[in-house]
Amino acid sequence: MNARPVAIISAIVVLLGSGCGSGQDQTPVSKTYVYVANRDSASVSGYAVSLDTHSMSAVPGSPFAADISPITIAIDPLGKYVYVATLNCAINVYAINPTTGSLTAVSGSPVSLDTYPSRIAIDPRGKFAYVTKDSGGCVSVYSIDRTTGLLTEIAGSPFAAGSYPNCVALDPAGKFAFVSNGSSNNVSVYAVDAVTGALAEIAGSPFPSGDFPTAVVIDPEGKFAFTTNIFTYDVSLYFVAATTGALTETLDSPIAVGSQIIDMAIVPEGQFAYLADWLYGQIYAYTVDRATGALAGISGSPFQTGSLPRSLAVDPEGQFLFVANSDSASLSVFSINAATGFLQGALGVTVPTGQTPFAVATVRLGQ
């Protein structure tokens, strides 16, 4: 793995850059919305999804203007704000109209960053935003103003990470933060201060992963952590210690997978997992053993997508998988068989997006 083609490494570095105004007084209707960050269109596309009729349509005003080169997107768990980080060293902040799903840039947006971001994650309480900065080798932490959605960097931020930190995830309780470090082939784990959002690296961190982890994913119960290792064509699987956050690699790890896996998504109930093979345009589907975390291939997998699938998202009801195809200007949409995890084309199979869709995220409003 030391003699890596320069072209492939350069492509990976570029790919990893990825992962409300009006109507607030109206009664929201329960609906799922999907948002896509389009890197080369400097925009965010928004779609409304009807789970009853299996239809999908652009929300009013879509696409929405963004700063130059938006590459990653995260949604406030309370469903009020969308955050889009860009290669222009900024984070665009939008308010979500709860009735229509339309986005409005909040006053004071975009928020300036000191260097390039790679991924953004919001803690489960919607109080803090965590941003990995690959060129800076760090994680920055921002408090979220619940009234405006704007970000303010907290005292002590940024916090040191490994080399080329490209993804950040939090456990469901918001107690721990996990950062995959691509160039140092490991995962940094931090305890999160519930009051300030500050990070303190735990004993034993960083923990070794496979070669060039591109994403770190925590299962919905916070029991397991996974890293997608793009140069060893496998997934590392860990038990997460409930009290300390420490990682222990399982006996089944690493698990060999297709080719160059760049992203992973797990359904809300935790029984199915999906991996994006960006090189060959495929999705690998697995069942997840809820006791051990072990992955077992689902019959019929892999499933074909558009070119260079870059980002995955499962809707909060666990009915659909959305795939941002960065080289096809499209979103592949699959329905998820609740019993088997099998994927079938849904909602027209593919939906047009802006140029180079780099990240996708979903939210359910009005529940």
Please, how many helices?
Answer: 1
CATH topology: Methylamine Dehydrogenase, Chain H
User: How widely separated are the two ends?
Assistant: 48 Å
Number of domains: 1
CATH architecture: 7 Propeller
The main pleated sheet reads as:
5 strands, antiparallel
Structural class: mainly beta
Beta-strand share of residues: over 45%
Give the overall silhouette: globular
| Number of extended strands | 34
Low-confidence stretches: 1-15, 17-28
Q: Determine the CATH superfamily.
A: YVTN repeat-like/Quinoprotein amine dehydrogenase
| Multimerization state | single chain
Description:
The chain is mostly beta strands and 367 residues long. It has 1 helix and 34 strands. It has a single domain (6-19, 35-365), classed as YVTN repeat-like/Quinoprotein amine dehydrogenase (Methylamine Dehydrogenase, Chain H, 7 Propeller), CATH 2.130.10. Helix content is 3%, strand content 49%. The strands form 7 sheets. Strands 1, 2, 3, 4 and 34 form a 5-stranded antiparallel beta sheet that branches. Strands 5, 6, 7, 8 and 9 form a 5-stranded antiparallel beta sheet that branches. Strands 10, 11, 12, 13 and 14 form a 5-stranded antiparallel beta sheet that branches. The radius of gyration is 19 Å and the shape is globular. The termini are far apart. The model is unreliable at 1-15 and 17-28 (pLDDT under 50).
